[in-house]
Specification:
Elements (H helix, E strand, L loop, with lengths): L2 E2 L19 H4 L4 H16 L3 H8 L3 E10 L5 E10 L7 E8 L4 H17 L5 E8 L7 H14 L9 E5 L5 H15 L23 H17 L7 E5 L3 H12 L3 E7 L2 E4 L6 H11 L9 E3 L11 E4 L18 E3 L8 H9 L3 E3 L1 H4 L2 H15 L5 H26 L3 H20 L4
Parallel strand pairs: 4-5, 4-6, 7-8, 7-11, 11-12, 12-13
Antiparallel strand pairs: 1-2, 2-3, 3-5, 8-9, 9-10
Helix pairs in contact: 2-4, 2-14, 4-14, 5-6, 7-8, 7-12, 7-13, 12-13, 13-14
Length: 441
């Protein structure tokens, strides 16, 4: 099915306006897109953007809806719905992950695509934002069924992706194997191997060293910078990590090795808490077999939402969207909130955290290590020359530290919190590029 060019309606700006914990707005948190739009509106007003430019930057460039027929292992024909939203191409090709989940919506994908635009601009890499998704339950599908879904989805959006157009990457419930299928499908259609068509691939297919750890490493790098601002040492810092997938587990491993004290972790099935610190290497070995942190003997069992409210210096949500809301933001005891997941904090919760003095490192900065090393992978594929892991990590640190300092300085200059500062910095960079290029008509 061809692209549906849908204009995004206006949304009431709520970020920057204090929200209580009662009333209909608090009972029903904003969607991912509404949260992005609310924060965008506050930042755009602070920047005093032209109304026309504001509308242009809020509106996706293209929204693609496809319907994917697949023969299941039973021989039954099933049709899955898929999306790819390309938000902005002013600074370069689109970049963004593809997720497989039963609750994927176009609204969610639209919001995450826009956040990718701002994320790439915050770390100042030459990409615009995109996001994709397929409504399916990977837990109920065989490997063969997942491959057929992935390849047909790729074929449906083939005209709109590629190294110079839109470069997909892994996201929720997708991985290196998924990217290998996409790269192969794309390459078969264009009749030559195009490794730069996706990132997050296996090393043997043009992947980058350091990519798997990149998002977790980036979270640690910006947390280190926050500790420096507060004059605190790693070994004095208690960390709780919600989510033990790739981002959460890698952040836990790296921070444990760097002598942070990891006192709590959780996944979808439950959590663990140990005030004296968890043995992360042993836990990681346990998770390989059990596929969950639940049942590990090195800590007390705790609910995976309750763990957010425990006393610590650093809270690192690395699971899914909207886990910190207006209903629980007032219970957060962490001094630093490092957002490893996309949109883990709803817009109505922002001001509650700010009033409580929580130093928020927003997602479009904190988890940008992944897209930064994806950029490195894209560059290496296009050059046909691959860097040692030490070089990847060194260049990642340089970009993340620079971006952290840029955001904090921007916030201090304009007297806004870190989230709005990150949005303002990103929007300012994209708007400047749009003005230089002009509007083609």
């Amino acid at each position: 099915m061809g692209p549906l060019l849908l204009a995004c309606g206006d949304h009431k700006p709520l970020a920057g306006v204090t929200m209580g914990t009662t009333g209909t707005e608090a009972e029903k948190e904003l969607s991912v897109y509404e949260c992005m739009a609310a924060r965008f509106d506050v930042a755009a007003r602070q920047l005093q953007l032209d109304p026309g430019l504001t509308k242009y930057l809020r509106t996706p460039n293209r929204e693609i809806v496809v319907h994917i027929p697949v023969i299941l292992d039973t021989g039954q024909l099933e049709v899955f719905d898929g999306f790819r939203v390309q938000h902005n191409i002013a600074r370069g090709p689109c970049k963004g992950g593809i997720r497989f989940a039963p609750n994927v919506t176009l609204d969610e994908i639209r919001g995450l695509a826009a956040e990718m635009t701002w994320k790439c601009a915050v770390v100042n890499i030459p990409f615009g934002g995109a996001k994709g998704g397929i409504i399916c339950d990977p837990q109920k599908l065989s490997l063969g069924e997942l491959e057929r879904i992935t390849r047909r989805y790729t074929a449906e959006i083939l005209d709109y992706i590629g190294p110079e157009r839109d470069v997909p990457a892994p996201d929720m419930n997708t991985n290196e194997q998924t990217m290998a299928w996409i790269m192969d499908t794309y390459s078969m259609h264009v009749r030559h191997t195009v490794t730069a068509s996706v990132t997050g691939k296996p090393l043997d297919l043009g992947g980058s060293r350091g990519r798997r750890e990149a998002t977790g490493r980036g979270c640690m790098i910006v947390t280190d910078q926050a500790l420096k601002r507060f004059g605190r040492q790693r070994q004095q810092t208690r960390v709780i990590i919600q989510g033990f997938g790739n981002v959460g587990s890698q952040a836990a491993r790296l921070m444990h090795e760097a002598v942070y004290k990891i006192i709590g972790v959780s996944d979808i099935l439950g959590g663990l808490f140990n005030a004296q610190g968890l043995d992360i290497p042993t836990l990681a070995e346990y998770v390989k077999e059990a596929k969950t942190v639940k049942g590990f003997k090195g800590g007390e069992s705790i609910d995976n939402m309750e763990i957010l409210e425990q006393d610590c210096e650093v809270l690192l949500p690395a699971a899914t969207e909207s886990v910190i809301t207006s209903k629980n933001a007032h219970k957060i005891k962490a001094r630093i909130l490092t957002e490893g997941a996309n949109s883990p904090t709803s817009a109505p919760a922002d001001d509650i955290l700010f009033e409580r003095g929580v130093f928020v490192i927003p997602d479009i900065l904190a988890n940008a290590g992944g897209v930064t090393v994806s950029y490195f992978e894209w560059v290496q594929d296009r050059q046909g020359y691959f860097w040692p892991e030490g070089m990847v990590n060194e260049r990642l640190k340089h970009i993340m530290v620079s971006a952290f300092n840029d955001v904090v300085r921007y916030g201090e200059k304009h007297n806004v919190n870190n989230r709005i500062a990150a949005y303002m910095l990103a929007i300012d960079r994209v708007a400047f590029t749009v003005k230089l290029r002009g509007i083609y008509a």
